Structures are given as structure tokens and as C-alpha cells.
Amino acid sequence: MIEFYLRQIQVPHPHSHKGENGKSLVIGGSDLFQAASQWSFLVISRFVDMAFYSSVAQNNEILQESKHFIADGVVVKRSDLPQYFQEVESVLIGPGMRRDFRTRFSATQLNRILPTDLTELDWEFDTQAVVSALLRAYPQKQWVVDAGALQVVDPKWLPPGAILTPHRHELQDLTKRLGEKSADFSLAETLVEIQNTIAKEYWQSAASQPAQLLTKQQINHFIPKQLLSRLYDFSTQLNQACCIVKGQADIIWNAEDVVIVVGGNAGLTKGGTGDVLAGLITAFAAKSPSLASTVVASYLNKAAGHSLYERQATMFNTSDLVAEIPRVWQTLQSQIC
Fold first, then answer.
1. Are the C-beta atoms of 118 and 132 separated by less than 8 Å?
2. Residue 212 backbone dihedrals phi, psi, to 5 degrees
3. Sequence-separated (6 or more) residues with CB below 8 Å from residue 59
4. Measured between alpha carbons, how far is 265 from 267 in angstroms, rounded to an integer?
5. pLDDT reading at 93 higher than 80
């Protein structure tokens, strides 16, 4: 089944030229969280022709001084971001961004501000203002909204077809921000219960499972029609967003379809593995449809985690996962040749 989605992923043509195989931008990190956005960048740089990275000044200086991954892309000052948006197709915003600073802008101002309205301090610390200004200024880009950005975004700011990566609490907050009735706040809990039910059925004794997609019949068994309709409506309310709720069973959906990817092990609960997944989604989404990009990224992340587990159980870290992904990707590509 994964072959259906793999065929939708654009891979470099043998006779392609520089820049034709995707350009992506990562906006993330903070003085508190340095590594998250860097994991995303490292995996993106393996798949696209050009990767741009933008963090707070402290992180950018660390990278410049250490030369860490500087050869794999371009480090951009946040206040210089507007001039780089013309270069890229996909943008990841949020990993490692702070959300504990109150914005100086009112709600009305946040719905109107432009990137040119932001000061150097705003670019450094005001995640909500940065998210609002950029999402609304560049709606034509393929956005992946993750972590810190997802926690402060107003649904009205989301451009068409954005990819959202909420965990349980972020999904709860998104539902509330949509102004849903209190009875609908249980969407996140319901999906977590479904994930747990699927895990119990597929994780009988093995500590790691190969990645696999559930069939439509299996999905209909776990997700009733009423909930399917609720998921489609949720996507529509978020401007046709594609969503992924991560777990042992990743639940992925847009306004028309639901896909469930099962697999992985406890090693994938470590910090940074979710940032790798967000980076994979962003890399694929530079040139490929959002749903297929999300499904294949989920599958590849789990498959790489399983491959590592077979050699070293859960004793792997995020850098091991980043290194394993190209090897597993090559194997997946051989399935459709």
C-alpha cells in the first residue's frame, strides 16, 4: 500500500539541474531550545537541493562559529527572512520556538501585522507575531506548522493546505481555538484511544513493529463513520489542512481521506525524533502532494526506527535516526522501480 504514496513523491530526475529538486526553509529554535530545529534541517538537507535555516541570533552564531552543518545549507537572520521566501517551496515553522513570551500586539494587530512591522526583538522572541506575519504574508508556500508555532497559531492565519503536526494537547487547543462546542473537545482523547486500541492489536509481543499502512477496511473498523466525518470537517475548518497525530499508530487526514501508519518502537519516543519527522514532511512537500508527503514521511520515520531496533534495540538517538533514513529510503525506492 505504501507504493501508492511513494509513486506520488517526486524524486530527482537523472538529468535535473540545480534547484529543480526542491528548496525548503526551517524557521525554529530559540535561546532555550537549540537542537530541535537543527534535527529538522539536517534531514531536509539530505532530500532537497537547497535548505535554508533561520533561528534566533544566539543559535545562528553558534552554528557560524562551530561550522556545524553550515556546509549543508544557508543560515539566515530572522529579520532577513522576507527576502528568502521567493526561493523556497516549503517552509517548516515551529520546532524549538518559545511560546512563553506574551506578544506586545493586540489581537486586532496580530490579524493585520506584516513582516515589516516586526522589530529585531519581535523576530527574536515574539513567536506569535512571527507566525502571524509570515503565514499571512506567504500563503502560496507549502507550510508545515509544528510545535511552538502550532501552540500559538490562530486558525484564521492558516494558509490553504497547510500541514499540521499536533500532539494530543495541541490538538485540544486547536479545537478550542476553532470555537467548537465543549462536547467536541474530546476529539484528541478519542484519537488517542483509537491509537491505543490499534497498538494493543498490533503490538502483541514484539517490542518493535515494521511500518505498515492499514487498509481502508481496517481503518473503518477502528474509526466510525461519524468520527471520519468529524475529521474531514476539522480539516475543512482549518483551511483544508492535512493533519498528523503521532503515536505508535500515526493518524493522518485531510478533508477527503484518512490514512493510518502503524509501526516503530520506544526508541522513537526520544527527543528530536518528532523534529526529524517534521523535517521529512517538509522535504517531501517541497515538490509533492501534502497527504502523500506526510504518509511517506511517517512510514519512513517508523521504518528507520525499526531498522535501528533490529541492530541495537532502543539504544539509538536522533543522530542515528537521521543517518539511517537515507539507507531505508533507498530500500523503499527499490520497491517501486
1. no
2. -155, 155
3. 29, 30, 31, 34, 37
4. 5
5. yes
Structural domains of the chain ordered from first start: 22-334 (3.40.1190.20)
Q: CB 79: neighbour CB atoms within 10 A?
A: 16
Nearest to 95 by CA among 173, 154, 36: 36
Length of the chain equals: 337
Q: What is the mean pLDDT of residues 33-58?
A: 83
pLDDT tens-digit profile of 134-172? 999 999 999 999 999 999 999 999 999 999 999 888 998
Residue 30 has a pLDDT of: 66
Number of Cβ atoms within 10 Å of the Cβ of 23: 21
Measured CA to CA, the distance from residue 126 to residue 149 in angstroms comes to 11
Asked if 337 and 5 touch (Cβ cutoff 8 Å), the reply is: no
pTM above 0.90, yes or no: yes
Question: What are the residues facing 163 on neighbouring strands?
Answer: 144, 242
d(CA 69, CA 71): 5
Rg (CA), the chain: 19
d(CA 145, CA 135): 9
